[in-house]
Design brief:
The structure holds 2 protein chains of 2 kinds. Chain A is 0% helix and 56% strand. By secondary structure, chain A is mostly beta strands. Chain B is an all-beta fold. In chain B, strands 2, 4, 5, 6, 9, 10 and 11 form a 7-stranded mixed β-sheet that branches. In chain B, strands 1-3-8-7 form a 4-stranded antiparallel β-sheet, with no helix packed on it. Classes of the chains: A mainly beta, B mainly beta. The interface between A and B is medium-sized, with 22 and 22 residues.
Chain lengths: 110, 117
C-alpha cells in the first residue's frame, strides 16, 4: 500500500503554545485515522475522518481532512504537558488494514 | 472487556533462542494485527488475520517469523531463531469488521518489549 508522510518529525513547544502536525499522501485517501502514543505506551485511537474537507474537534484538538483527501492535519491549541507523545496518522489500505505514518513526536516544556 | 491482552510484557533472550509472543484480541473482533515498532522503522505491519485466517503476511521479515491464530481468542507470533536485530516492541491489535466505517478503529495491546542479546 501507499505510504503516508508526516511533518514535522519532532516538535518541541512551550506549554501553552499551539502545535500542528501534518499528514500527506501522494494518492487520494478513502479515510484517515489519528492515534496518540504516550511514551512507553501503546497507540490509542483518537479519530477517523472520512469526508472531503471534514473538520472534527475534540476539546483542544482539531482534526482536518483536505478537500482533495490527500492530506490531513491535527492542531492542538494551548498545549499541556499531558499532550506529550507521538501522534500518528494511519491510512486505510483497501479497507483491510491501516498503514501508519512515521509519527510526530511532541515534547511540551513546562 | 479487558481490551487486547498481550504477554509477556517484557522478554529478554539470547540470540538463537525461540521466542513466542501471545495475544488475546477483544471478544467479537474479526481482525487481528501484529505490528513491530522500532525507532528506525516506526510501526510496521507484520501480518493480519481475518476470522482466524492469515490474509497478508508480506510484512513478515523472513522465515524465522511465523504467526498463528488457532481460534478467535488467541494468536501467537513466534521467532525462531531470534537475532539481536529482532529487538523491538511488538504490538497486537484488533478491530471489528463490518466495513461500514463505524468500528474500524484499532485497539492495541500494551505490547511486548523484546530484547535479544
Amino acid at each position: 500500500g501507499q505510504q503516508v508522510m508526516q511533518i514535522p518529525q519532532y516538535q518541541h513547544v512551550q506549554e501553552g503554545e499551539d502545535f500542528t502536525t501534518y499528514c500527506n499522501s501522494s494518492t487520494t485517501l478513502s479515510n484517515i485515522q489519528w492515534y496518540k502514543q504516550r511514551p512507553g505506551g501503546h497507540p490509542v485511537f483518537l479519530i477517523q475522518l472520512v469526508k472531503s474537507g471534514e473538520v472534527k474537534k475534540q476539546k483542544r484538538l482539531t482534526f482536518q481532512f483536505g478537500e482533495a483527501k490527500k492530506n490531513s492535519s491535527l492542531h492542538i491549541t494551548a498545549t499541556q504537558t499531558t499532550d506529550v507523545g507521538t501522534y500518528f496518522c494511519a491510512r486505510d489500505n483497501y479497507g483491510q488494514n491501516f498503514v501508519f505514518g512515521p509519527g510526530t513526536r511532541l515534547s511540551v516544556l513546562p | 472487556d479487558a481490551g487486547v491482552i498481550q504477554s509477556p510484557r517484557h522478554e529478554v533472550t539470547e540470540m538463537g533462542q525461540e521466542v513466542t509472543l501471545r495475544c488475546k484480541p477483544i471478544s467479537g473482533h474479526d481482525y487481528l494485527f501484529w505490528y513491530r515498532q522500532t525507532m528506525m522503522r516506526g510501526l510496521e505491519l507484520l501480518i493480519y488475520f481475518n476470522n482466524n485466517v492469515p490474509i497478508d503476511d508480506s510484512g513478515m521479515p523472513e522465515d524465522r517469523f511465523s504467526a498463528k491464530m488457532p481460534n478467535a481468542s488467541f494468536s501467537t507470533l513466534k521467532i525462531q531463531p531470534s537475532e539481536p536485530r529482532d529487538s523491538a516492541v511488538y504490538f497486537c491489535a484488533s478491530r471489528g469488521g463490518t466495513g461500514d466505517g463505524t468500528n474500524e478503529k484499532l485497539f492495541f495491546g500494551s505490547g511486548t518489549q523484546l530484547s535479544v542479546l
